[in-house]
Write a structure and sequence with these properties.
Layout lengths: L2 E6 L3 H11 L4 E8 L4 H8 L4 E3 L5 H6 L6 E2 H6 L3 E4 L5 H12 L2 E4 L10 E3 L1 H4 L8 E4 L2 H17 L1 E11 L15 E2 L7 H5 L8 E8 L5 E9 L6 H9 L4 E4 L8 H11 L9 E4 L4 E3 L2 E8 L6 H11 L6 H12 L5
Parallel strand pairs: 1-2, 1-5, 2-3, 3-4, 5-6, 6-8, 7-8, 9-11, 13-14
Antiparallel strand pairs: 9-12, 10-11, 12-16, 14-16, 15-16
Helix pairs in contact: 1-11, 11-12
Bound molecules: nicotinamide-adenine-dinucleotide.
The site of nicotinamide-adenine-dinucleotide has 27 residues, from helix 1 and strand 2.
Length: 340
């Protein structure tokens, strides 16, 4: 029996999660909900997704442009075992009432406060913690990237202190009204909220984060400086650990990937859909070790990195796989990530 999944909020994250759900062998997409008709709503219908009306939208708005809708969000919830809420920041918490009334389990995104759910989740870091839960929050794109890296480093060498400078993209590609267009804007609140968010998964990690926003839409880049408790002999051990872990992609110097433009060009060529990069991207040459001090850069594709995590969160909630690594393997094979 496949788990029936609803997606409420069909924007940057929601549309990708819907596409990922239909590719999983043990999940079934029962529908997606949008507030207003637009080209994305039409695309959902063209893809064969049942379309429902959410938020302040009305079926009449969709009827007026000839887009068939199957009902409203309560109808959608009535057909689902779990809903993935991908509505804008802080809207999800307001939807909890609806989900409780329908008796469906719910996954929330990183734009919600941690207390929206029983557990904050990352598949590599704490898959087991979401087992059997009714409400799970998949942490944000930046927190997902850091949590994955911590899941590699912490158990192997321990961490005395982790500092991250986040170079953040200004907006997603479709957001033409956001900026900065020509400037570098520091987030003056130190530490930034990302460090505390990582501690929703690793409560004892000594981590501090600072952030600057730059005029790009492509990806975030993290500059990591980690003081290890028991460092390996050389940086090659770090490289190997990242290389052997799913959801990490390392580029060697000969591959000519100088920065995020080449990462996105790589993504355009590999054909997993929407030009997404769901892995943490590391530059092998930048992985450095000086005594206990480790340094590495990683690029994070904000639009897609949380997508496989949402899939694994469903599998954990319904106990569909014996452990996180098994779930990650199923997800990544279905998405075409493994080996590409
Ligand atoms: P988005 O604005 O691209 O999409 C949200 C969608 O929800 C829109 O289509 C909007 O019309 C719809 N919507 C609004 N109110 C609704 C309601 N009441 N019911 C149903 N649909 C409604 O937002 P996004 O970037 O996809 O972000 C969604 C969540 O994912 C947020 O919590 C965000 O913090 C998180 N997230 C975003 C990114 C990113 O970089 N975009 C990365 C990781 C996590």
């Amino acid at each position: 029996m496949r788990i029936r999944v609803a997606v409420n909020g069909y924007g940057t994250i929601g549309k990708r999660i819907a596409d990922a759900v239909v590719r999983q062998p043990d999940l079934e997409l029962v529908g997606v909900a949008k507030t207003h008709p637009d080209f994305e709503a039409r695309r959902a219908v063209e893809r064969g997704y049942a379309l429902y009306v959410g938020g302040d939208g009305s079926p009449a708005g969709f009827d007026a442009v000839g887009l068939p809708v199957a009902g409203t969000v309560p109808d959608l919830l009535g057909r689902a075992d779990v809903v993935v809420d991908a509505t804008p920041d802080k809207v999800g918490a307001g939807n909890r009432r609806l989900y409780d009334a329908a008796g469906v389990r719910a996954i929330f995104q990183g734009g919600e406060a941690a207390d929206v759910a029983e557990v904050s989740f990352n598949a590599l870091a704490n898959y087991a913690a979401a087992r059997g839960k009714r409400r799970v929050r998949v942490v944000s794109c930046n927190t997902t990237g850091i949590a994955r890296a911590a899941a590699v480093v912490l158990p192997r060498w321990g961490v005395e202190r982790w500092d991250v400078t986040l170079v953040r993209r200004a907006a997603d590609p479709a957001e033409s009204k956001k900026g900065p267009l020509n400037g570098i804007v520091p987030s003056l609140h130190i530490p930034s909220h990302h460090g505390p968010d990582v501690r929703t998964i690793f409560p004892d990690l000594a981590i501090a984060t600072v952030a600057v926003v730059v005029p790009t839409t492509l990806m975030h880049v993290h500059v990591n400086h980690v003081r290890l408790r028991s460092p390996p002999a050389d940086a090659a051990a770090l490289v190997e650990a990242f290389r052997e872990t799913p959801r990490f992609r390392l580029f060697a110097p000969w591959e000519g990937v100088g920065g995020t433009p080449q990462v996105m060009e790589f993504a355009r060529g590999r054909g997993i859909g929407r030009d997404d990069v769901m892995e943490n991207v590391l530059w092998q040459e930048g992985v450095t070790l000086e005594g206990k001090e480790a340094y590495f850069f990683q690029a994070i594709h904000q639009e897609s990195i949380v997508v496989p995590e949402n899939i694994d969160a469903i599998r954990a909630m319904f106990d569909l796989a014996p452990d996180g690594r098994t779930s990650i393997g199923i997800t990544d094979r279905a998405l075409g990530l493994a080996g590409r």
